Amino acid sequence: MSEKVTICIPTYWTAEAGQSKSTQLLNAYDHPTPIDTSGTLERCLNSLVNLKGDFRVVIIGAMTEPELHDRFQKKLKNILDKFRDLDLYWFSYNELTAFHKLLEQKGAHYQKKYVSLEGYSNIRNLCLILPHILGSKVAFLVDDDEVVTDKDIIAKALFNVGGIFEEEPVLAKTGLYVSEKKPETKPKKPWRETYWPKSRTMEEVFTKAKEGPRISHTTFALGGAMIVHRDLFTKVSFDPWMLRGEDIDYLINCKLHGYQFVSDNEFTVLHLAPTHLASRLSKMRQDIYRFVYAKEKLQYAFERTKLHRFDIEELDPYPGLFMRKSVGRRAFSYIILSAVKDIYRTEVFSNLALINEGIIKAKRYARKNKARWFGFQRLWPNFMEEIKEVEVEKVLTKIG
Q1: What digits encode the pLDDT tens for the residues 173-210?
Q2: Are 300 and 370 in contact (CB under 8 A)?
Q3: Residues 6+ apart with CB under 8 A from 100
C-alpha cells in the first residue's frame, strides 16, 4: 500500500430518539446519532470531497445497541455508497468479527483485546491500527460532527510532522476547533464550578494556543483534530480503561514514553457538535471517573514503572489541576454546590447520588484498573509489528 495519509472518522450511533438501553460506562458517548435520524457523517464526508492532497478515508462505525448492529451497518453502508469518488473504506462489526477470526487462526487469541468497538479509547486505537494496516505513515483523526472548510488542511496538518521542534521530533500534533459563530460576550461561568473550573482552564489553554506561535508544546490534544506519525502510533496506544478524555490521556501516555505533542493553530476544523444527549450529571460522572483514574494511573506510573517521570505542573492549567490529590475534594465540592443550586428541584437528589455513583465508585474503579493499561501497552509494539502484513481486504471493506 502507498504511504498516503489515512483520515480516520469514528461515528457513534444509538437507538431511536437517542434512548440507549446500555448502562455500561464504556459505551456512554456524548452525542451518538439516533439510528432513525440522518446524523452528521454525510455532512462531514461532503467536506472531504475536494480536499487537496493524497489521502484515503476510513470510517469506523460503533453502535450502542447490539440488537441493532445489522440495521446500523446497512444504514451506514447506504450513506457511504454516496461517496464512491473518495478512496473510502469502512470498519464495523462484520469487519471486527473477521479481524478476530484472523487473530484466532494465527493463535494470537490474546491480541483480540486490541481490536474492539467498545468505548472511545478502543475506537481511537482502531484509528491507529487501521492506518498501519493500510501502510500509512500518518494517521489523521477527525470526528463525524466536524466539517473541513480548509481545502489545504492535509498540507497544514502535516506541516513539520516528522521534523524537529525545539530539538525534539514532531510525531504527534493537535489542531484547534473553530465554531461558526463567536459569542459577543463571554458566557458567565456557573458558580457551582468554583472548585471544578474545567471550562475556564480549558479556555485558558485554547486561548494560549490560538494567540501563541503557530507551533508550540501543549497540554491538550483534540481527538477530532489529531495527527499521529507511524513512529509513534506503533509504539504508544490509547488506554481502554480511560472512559472519557482519551485524547488528552493519549498525550499523557506519549509523555510517559518521552514524546511531546505540539499544537498548530493553523490546523483547524469546524466543530458543529449536535445537542448532547448525555445529561450534565452523566457527563460529570464520567469526568469524575476520568480524572480520579488519571491521577491514580499517573501515580502508579511514577512509583511502579520505569517510564518517563515529569512534574504535574507541566500539565497545568488543564488537565493538571484535576490530576492532583485534591481531585476528590474538588468533585465533592462541585456536587454539593450543584445540589444547593438545585435545592428546589428533583435534580438535588441526583446530584447528591453522585457522591456514591461518582466519587466512591470512581475511586474503586481507579484502584482496580490503574495498572491494566501498562500491561496492555507493553505488548502494543509487538501487536502492531505482527499485524502490519495483514491483508487489507480481510479486515476492511472498500467502498466502490
Answers
A1: 999 999 876 655 555 667 677 888 999 999 999 999 99
A2: yes
A3: 112, 115
Query: Would residue 84 count as lying in a domain?
Result: yes
Domain tally for the chain?
1
Q: How confident is the model at residue 50 (pLDDT cuts 50, 70, 90)?
A: very high
Q: Stretch 319-345: mean pLDDT, rounded?
A: 83
Looking up residue 96, the CATH number of its domain turns out to be 3.90.550.10
For residue 142, give the nearest of 154, 155, 132 by alpha carbon: 154
Structural domain includes residue 331: no
- List CB contacts of 233: < 8 A, sequence separation 6 or more: 128, 131, 132, 139, 384
Q: Look up residue 19 and give its DSSP letter.
A: -
165 found inside a domain: yes
How far from each other are the two terminal CA atoms of the chain, in whole angstroms? 17
Does residue 222 belong to any structural domain of this protein? yes
For 35-78, the DSSP string reads TTS--SHHHHHHTTTT--SSEEEEEEEEES-GGGHHHHHHHHHH
Instruction: Please give the DSSP secondary-structure letter assigned to residue 306.
Output: -
Helix axes of 246-256 and 280-304: crossing angle, nearest 10 degrees = 10
Domain that holds residue 92: 5-277+372-392
pLDDT > 70 fraction of the chain, expressed in percent and rounded = 92
pLDDT at 324 over 80: yes
Label residue 159 by pLDDT band (50, 70, 90).
very high
Confirm if 176 and 265 have CB atoms less than 8 A apart: yes
